[in-house]
Amino acid sequence: MAAQKIYVAVVGVGLVGSELIAQLLALPSSPFRLISLTSTTRTLFSSTSLTSTWKSQLAASSDKPDLTKLSQQLSALVSESKVALIDNTSSEDVAKMYPTWLKAGISVITPNKKAFSGDKSLYDQIIAAIRSPTGGRVYNEATVGAGLPVISTLKDLVGTGDKIVKIEGVFSGTMSYIFNEFSTGKSDGPAFSAVVKLAREKGYTEPHPADDLNGFDVARKLTILARTISTYSLSATSLPELDSFAAVKTASLIPSALENIPTGDEFIARLPEFDAEFNELRTKASQDGQVLRFVGVVDPVNGIVRAGLERYPTTHPFATSLGGSDNIIMFHTERYGARPLIVQGAGAGAAVTAMGVLGDLLKLV
Amino acid sequence: MAAQKIYVAVVGVGLVGSELIAQLLALPSSPFRLISLTSTTRTLFSSTSLTSTWKSQLAASSDKPDLTKLSQQLSALVSESKVALIDNTSSEDVAKMYPTWLKAGISVITPNKKAFSGDKSLYDQIIAAIRSPTGGRVYNEATVGAGLPVISTLKDLVGTGDKIVKIEGVFSGTMSYIFNEFSTGKSDGPAFSAVVKLAREKGYTEPHPADDLNGFDVARKLTILARTISTYSLSATSLPELDSFAAVKTASLIPSALENIPTGDEFIARLPEFDAEFNELRTKASQDGQVLRFVGVVDPVNGIVRAGLERYPTTHPFATSLGGSDNIIMFHTERYGARPLIVQGAGAGAAVTAMGVLGDLLKLV
User: Fold this and answer.
1) Residue of B174, B168, B187, B213 whose CA lies nearest to B314
2) Nearest 5°: phi and psi at B7?
3) Which of A246, B74, B242, B352 has the fewest CB within 10 Å, making it most exposed?
4) What ipTM does the predicted assembly reach?
């Protein structure tokens, strides 16, 4: 790993961004030159490579974030060397810049799901841009399963001519934790509201747990997988054209009476009213030797993309093998036949997410 | 996928080779130009791209295999375009050519374990060659777990600074099948010899089952993983320098009285003499709520690389999640903490092996 240098600009320097920069700066004989940082309040463009003092340098900058100016600054470097922009935000506004950057020959690497699971028109512009001979590359491994090899595996499968029969998985670390704790196959156990409360206290849920229980995070990941299949498969599938993640058939876990509760505290306070309902689901599943799991399914054969609570036998890997806040993804394909290819492990966290991003960046070398 | 063309030479056109060529020729708007084929008896070098008629063209060739001449022919193309050689053999002689090819700027892609698990000096020459500025690349994803993302995942982990605590897995499809059938956690079941006999009849073992039961295939895969860790880690480990796979602590399953049985038939005929021994192992494991699995372990912390029969609780993924002739690989790492990253699925077979090879080839685009 020597040769040609690669300029790197980082947008978003929170938990994942800081970890990414730390991992990046720790690479020995690295070809990467970190030249630009952008936070929510400041930006910095440096003619020399930034080092471990980047935080204080950014704090000392008086420049406000300006993505248009950043585009110009980076575009000017493309003729000289490879340029990569890493978006560690979850911002829709940053995502909307990808086509501009990619068209200019800047590669985009990101764990931000917005561009790949939002408006189909934005996604189409991105694919058109990377297919142009002078376009940059786009890598988004960390949008699904963080550092787990999910997107790369899917691209390898369909890009070499395998046919996806079904992808089925637990895609949300939060949902994984909640149901691994709540539904173990026994007829009783902790109350649903108690599990959600504890998950929130441990920092596993968003501040407002409804932002997890609505299933939108899973729907976004399924949209990314479905679009990846449609874009990279060698043969046509029956998958629907998803206008956005909102088109995924998603069975929210938010009780309808709690749909518009403004705060997380209030939501948690009222959730026990619905414990009996969840308890009944668990009891019924248990009577059939099953557990409850919040899963996502992408089925290109039958044209189905759906997220929701489903039941699995207690002998199924979703019951036996899962723990903590693990993700698990099963790829049922033509070549893998009766037994799926399975990827499992932590699907969230700054270190493993940053690793997924850095792994993508290394593909540019 | 358009732009620059990539010349491809294929050595080895058996099951995996034929499947690889079929998958390669099925790629739409492919940059690859298949220009050379070599079997055990013939070779063909074509000035135009070979197509689906390759078998008859090769059969019509009167040229004998000549790897030295092939080197010259391919080297002459390097200045013009990228050149890849795909070795689908399991030949040591072909493996010994890798340094020559790589130094000439030819990339090598292969499921052949020999070069990466044999003499350390050959491996060192390969690594030196790919590190030279004009050297080709080497990709060997399919040497471990066929099409499963094992090598790429390991490189991503250690290449981004993660530290491997332990890799533990069932790396042999044959051993997986044998013990999934033989040891299910119950105290009884089919005789060991009956399971091996059936596995052989199904074509899951080598013609001589001792070639599986000696554990060498697993030892070779562990050598590849250990060397990958040592070569690509950002920090030092305590792993031993393996002179070859023979340095792996391997507990063969061949009863010592059967160590030099010349034929598979004779071996199968005498194996029942040792059923009582295997039965006792199974019974003892079962009494402790455990199953038997033939596993491989690479432990960079304690400097251990070993293959052999080990016991796992019936609740462990090696007991609950495995089936058929699946491979399963657990990566315990610093970043993945208490719960490992797991990859599971078919680890052998022409279609998935060829897919692993073609996935590697696509990295050259």
Assistant:
1) B187
2) -80, 135
3) A246
4) 0.96
